[in-house]
Amino acid sequence: MGKNGYLPLFETKPAGGLVFFRSYAASIFIGICFICFHRVSYFPVTERWVWVGMFVAELWFSFYFFITVIVKWNPVFRSTFKDRLSSRFEEEELPGVDIFVCTADPRLEPPTMVVSTVLSVMAYDYPPHKLSVYLSDDGCSDLTFYALLEASRFAQLWLPFCRKLKVEPTSPEAYFQTTPEPVDDVFMANEWLIIKKSYEDMKNRIESITSLGKVPAYRRKEHNGFDEWDFVLSPHHHPSILQILIDGRDPNAIDIEGKALPTLVYLAREKRPQIHHNFKAGALNALAFDNLTENEIYGSLRVLMKLELAGFDGNGGPCYVGTGCVHRRESLSGMKYSEELAVELKAMKYDKKIIGSASFNEEDCKALASCTYEENTPWGKEKGVKYESLVEDVLTGMSIQSKGWRSVFFNPQREAFLGMGPTTLLDTLVQHKRWGEGELQILLSKHCPFVYGRPNMPLKLQLSYCIYNLWAPNCFATLYYVFVPSFCLFRGISLFPKISSSWGIPYLYVIFVHRVHSLVEYVWLGGTVRGWLNEQRMWMFKRTTSYLFAAIDHMLKLFGFSKSAFAITGKVADDDVHRRYEQEIMEFGTWSPMFTVLATLALFNLLGLIAVVTNNVAIGDARMKIFDVFGFQILLCYVLVFINLPIYQGMFFRKDSVSQSACGRPSPRLAQQI
């Protein structure tokens, strides 16, 4: 029983198995100490700088391991009792909820996917007059507006259907893909088929117009809002467009059963070529991934979303990662948390009585969406979503926590929010390049958690942020470990103790136990063994390309040679790409300098392995002696070659032109032309 005799609305439990994790971490720490002692004690007379480089790389890995241990030291998990909410609060006591759905480009983020997301949140089991849904269209596309107009009509059918059948998930696309037709009830089966056909008809209309590339004149006559696009010069040069498609205050805004509909608003923030619009953060201030393959060929955020954020919670509160997050309005408005404010918030009552018609409010609110509205104001600096960062979400969350607000992590058994992950290797690397650069930007700025977070963020939470802030610097130690040991094999330089030496034990222990723990952790969180192997592959690919280019680009920006650019990753693929993605065949996409780095490292390690195998065959009797001296380097080379198997496949065996040209080998068509 909680305070005032109420049953609690949620409970918090520490993660299980912490004794085993802490024992594992302590044993790895002891192993690291032995490795460091060996590096210092057995300092070679020749090739000393190579040895020093290995030692520095291992010190970096040890430091980063220390950061991950801090994050995972005390994770907590929360569960809710939503059935108790109605007994605690009357409907009128519930707060108003604004939900923001962001999109940027109908070519990369299909309008059908966007409207399915919008319909899913409109169908929430929440008083509709207290629910408002905003679609922020950073691409200012009339195709997206048309799709939202179709969704506003279909909502009159979909919302009653969701209430009647208690539909889960409430996204129509996901629901009809996963839920079979009810066969026990003829009436419900008939209604199920009607709703499905209505959704498919709407989807076909949207897709046909999207493929056409423009909204036909007869469709534009369906809503006056299309007249706004007469003044749109380009997606980067247009006035504010704000259209209230469903006004929740209007008594005529009802579904087919006569129940009220939630408010639905389309917004495209004003853009002018000479004025920086702050990308997604600017759009938000004006206002998880469900396509993963079974074995997650391009890796996933599984450990981050299911364990690391729980660890953040145990250290003081999870960071804001851009989606699936609920904010109090007061926390985003720049207010500092205090006990006095907490009392005021508890006494505050929600009142949504707003005077004026929808058309009047549309014109009145357009000024708020102008590209100059926040000039000489705290917006983007002290209020709202923060500007001047490629990872505006992380910076915004840190700002909120620095003002004394506490965040909590809740991960329900059924994912609350699903998105679309990249379906090509290049899109994945570009996405992580942006994230890595943004995190490094925070670390090297006035927003560094050790400065910005004081005094309201505990030290362990400040250190927790470093697990992401240090993504980009990880590239240097990783590149050294990937390249130098293989290079030294050619030169006959040993960088590790002999396999037969007792000093090899701590190396073997740290490597083996650390990887086994990683595998167990990944499978415990719902992954597969093959998925873990793909995760290790992507771990190396990202560190040797995405984070390398992120570090280089940020250094160039610091010296004024370039400016930040927001890269949108594709969420839709052509049929061939989609087919290979479903078959878990790595898709390389167009050529990129990142692939040059990957191909170079892959070939270098392959040549190193070939040289070792050839040398062993030639020498014969001395084979075991060579393995004893160079065993660790040979094993490392074998692992790197295994990780790079998709690269070799793309370079030497794949027949599709995209993979071969991307990896540095001319396509058959290009070869014929040559």
UniProtKB/TrEMBL annotation:
<keyword id="KW-0961">Cell wall biogenesis/degradation</keyword>
<feature type="transmembrane region" description="Helical">
    <location>
        <begin position="588"/>
        <end position="614"/>
    </location>
</feature>
<feature type="transmembrane region" description="Helical">
    <location>
        <begin position="626"/>
        <end position="648"/>
    </location>
</feature>
<feature type="transmembrane region" description="Helical">
    <location>
        <begin position="49"/>
        <end position="71"/>
    </location>
</feature>
<keyword id="KW-0808">Transferase</keyword>
<keyword id="KW-1133">Transmembrane helix</keyword>
<dbReference type="GO" id="GO:0030244">
    <property type="term" value="P:cellulose biosynthetic process"/>
</dbReference>
<dbReference type="InterPro" id="IPR005150">
    <property type="entry name" value="Cellulose_synth"/>
</dbReference>
<dbReference type="GO" id="GO:0016020">
    <property type="term" value="C:membrane"/>
</dbReference>
<protein>
    <recommendedName>
        <fullName>Glycosyltransferase 2-like domain-containing protein</fullName>
    </recommendedName>
</protein>
<feature type="transmembrane region" description="Helical">
    <location>
        <begin position="21"/>
        <end position="43"/>
    </location>
</feature>
<feature type="active site">
    <location>
        <position position="138"/>
    </location>
</feature>
<dbReference type="Pfam" id="PF03552">
    <property type="entry name" value="Cellulose_synt"/>
</dbReference>
<keyword id="KW-0812">Transmembrane</keyword>
<dbReference type="GO" id="GO:0016760">
    <property type="term" value="F:cellulose synthase (UDP-forming) activity"/>
</dbReference>
<feature type="transmembrane region" description="Helical">
    <location>
        <begin position="463"/>
        <end position="483"/>
    </location>
</feature>
<feature type="active site">
    <location>
        <position position="393"/>
    </location>
</feature>
<feature type="transmembrane region" description="Helical">
    <location>
        <begin position="546"/>
        <end position="568"/>
    </location>
</feature>
<dbReference type="GO" id="GO:0071555">
    <property type="term" value="P:cell wall organization"/>
</dbReference>
<feature type="binding site">
    <location>
        <position position="138"/>
    </location>
    <ligand>
        <name>UDP-alpha-D-glucose</name>
    </ligand>
</feature>
<keyword id="KW-0472">Membrane</keyword>
<dbReference type="InterPro" id="IPR029044">
    <property type="entry name" value="Nucleotide-diphossugar_trans"/>
</dbReference>
<dbReference type="GO" id="GO:0012505">
    <property type="term" value="C:endomembrane system"/>
</dbReference>
<keyword id="KW-0328">Glycosyltransferase</keyword>
<feature type="binding site">
    <location>
        <position position="109"/>
    </location>
    <ligand>
        <name>UDP-alpha-D-glucose</name>
    </ligand>
</feature>
